[in-house]
Amino acid sequence: MVEDDPLVRELVVDALREEGYEVFHASNGEQALALCKRQIADVLVTDIRLPGGVDGWQIAERCRELDPQLQVIYATGFSPVEARPVHGSLTLHKPYQPDRIVEAVRQMGKGRRPPSIS
Fold it and tell me: Which of 22, 31, 55, 57 has a CB 3.0–4.6 Å from the CB of 26, allowing a cystine?
């Protein structure tokens, strides 16, 4: 989960955790890319417009270089950049209710390769 608004991030993270998801979160693109390098996510939820030099589009592109099957949910209230639809992604417009993200993650997670068990 990548979201620069701490209140929105907290609400969504809490909602996902209540549904049993393990959630890693970041407040900017640089933090998100560090998490991405660990390849720990099945679904990436990212705001498009973020502070700093890395936006949500770039996060998804770089994460998908490492994991082409990564499902992506873009969230935006406003994006100055033209949408770049990518297979295995969807876009949610703000404001949204946290349960909408939970449902989107549930849907995007279907069809994903089974988790590895060691």
Answer: 31
Q: Using the CB atoms, write b or e for 30-45: b if 16+ within 10 Å.
A: ebbbebbeeeebbbbb
Give the whole-angstrom CA distance, residue 87 versus residue 72: 9
Task: Tell me, letter by letter, the H, E, C secondary structure of the chain.
Answer: CECCCHHHHHHHHHHHHHCCCCCCCECCHHHHHHHHCCCCCCEEEEECCCCCCCCHHHHHHHHHHHCCCCEEEEEECCCCCCCCCCCCEEEEECCCCHHHHHHHHHHHHCCCCCCCCC
With cut-offs at 50, 70 and 90, classify the pLDDT of residue 56: very high
Tokens of 25: 């979160």
pLDDT band at residue 116 using 50, 70 and 90 as cut-offs: very low
